[in-house]
Amino acid sequence: MIYIHIPFCLRKCNYCAFNSKIGNEAEKISYVDALIEEIISRGDGSEVETIYFGGGTPTTLTLAQLEKILHAVEENFHVDERAEITIEANPGTVISIRNEELGIRNELVPNYLCGLKDLGFNRISLGVQSFDDALLKIIGRIHTSRAAIDSITLAKNFFANVSVDLMYGLPNQNLNHLRRDLELIKNLDVAHVSIYGLEIEPDTKFFELYNNNQLPLPDDDTCADMYDFITETLPAIGYRRYEISNFAKNNFESRHNIGYWTGKKYFGFGAGAHSFDGKLRTSNVRDVATYIKANVPIVEEIVTRQAAMEEFCFLGLRMIDGISAKKFYDKFDEKIFDIFGGVIKKNHQLGLLEVDGDKIFLSKRGLALGNEIFADFLL
Ligand code: SF4
């Protein structure tokens, strides 16, 4: 598995705490060079089944820049011919848009999406967040609802595997907005949907507004209703919930993300990217300028046997199918009930965990309280 971080965006969204910035053309050129240098220096010819370009907005790079990066990956790894190759995209960057209010004019080569497909990308993940223009403006997205619909429609001409990100709990958002969002999802018939509840993160415009009582957030009950509405409606319109926040049509589950939840090794390239070799978790320097000058990765964690057991449980439980007692035994040569029996029993009695033969998985109530249960698995 390979993750490639592209930290550039056309504009910073009001809620965004990701490692992203508005980059200029010279900086992008230097960044791509640094990225390629890192890929060459760490490439070991190992098998790669998934490649994921995330950000930031990877589609702020030109097709030629993306091609150079993919070429470096192919030269230094053994990329499976059926590999899943995803690119995250902002709807305002895959079609030409003009947002006079934000001063953004993105004149794109007309064949940009087709070009992505020709480069080998076979999955595109579009950060739509909402189909409501007023909400999009509040959260600071560069695109309109129309641009999102047009981007999805166009993307579907080139990709069978189109994913859409949606958010809930946004300022001024109500259930009617989400009703319309899911109606559009149904009509647009995308392959995959990820949902995110808004979190107010430090160093964002929303953080400042929130602290000044200027953010009209929906209350907890309304957010809970939104969560229930989304998690009940998506399966009703054909999307299987396969992870806490992810829904897919048959066979369109994200193989890359499943890799993270099942403890696979991965290389992370680019500013702030994390890697895991099965024992060590390392991270690159986060600052883009420093990364370009000289990246010195640091060891974040030595994953001990105990930490690996804990991760097996709390990452695996993110998935609706949960974890397998047999797989735990095969991996650690110990029975899961000998290690986590108390935690499993307690959460089972609370109605948060289900145990069915070999499988241990979150109940419907457990899915809504995921993080509290995961914390219980830290020994
Ligand atoms: S497009 Fe994504 S990464 Fe870029 S600022 Fe907005 S939320 Fe952050």
Explain what you see.
- This protein folds into two domains: 260 residues, Transcription Regulator spoIIAA; 75 residues, Arc Repressor Mutant, subunit A (Orthogonal Bundle).
- Helix content is 43%, strand content 22%.
- It is built from 16 helices and 17 strands.
- A nine-stranded mixed sheet has the order 9-10-8-7-6-3-2-1-11. Strands 12-13-14 form a three-stranded antiparallel sheet, with no helix packed on it. A three-stranded antiparallel sheet has the order 15-17-16.
- A hairpin with a 4-residue loop joins strand 4 and strand 5.
- The longest helix has 18 residues.
- The chain starts with a strand and ends with a helix.
- The site of iron/sulfur cluster has 11 residues, from loops.
Summary tags:
43% helix, 3-stranded antiparallel beta sheet, Arc Repressor Mutant, subunit A, Transcription Regulator spoIIAA, alpha/beta, 379 residues, 16 helices, binds iron/sulfur cluster
What does the secondary structure layout of this molecule look like, with pairings?
Elements: E1 2-6, H1 25-42, E2 47-55, H2 63-76, E3 78-89, H3 91-94, E4 97-99, E5 104-106, H4 112-119, E6 123-129, H5 133-139, H6 145-158, E7 161-168, H7 175-188, E8 192-197, H8 205-211, H9 220-236, E9 240-243, E10 246-248, H10 255-261, E11 267-269, E12 274-276, E13 280-283, H11 288-293, E14 298-302, H12 305-316, E15 323-324, H13 325-332, H14 336-349, E16 353-356, E17 359-362, H15 364-368, H16 370-376
Parallel strand pairs: 1-2, 1-11, 2-3, 3-6, 6-7, 7-8
Antiparallel strand pairs: 4-5, 8-10, 9-10, 12-13, 13-14, 15-17, 16-17
Helix pairs in contact: 1-2, 2-4, 7-9
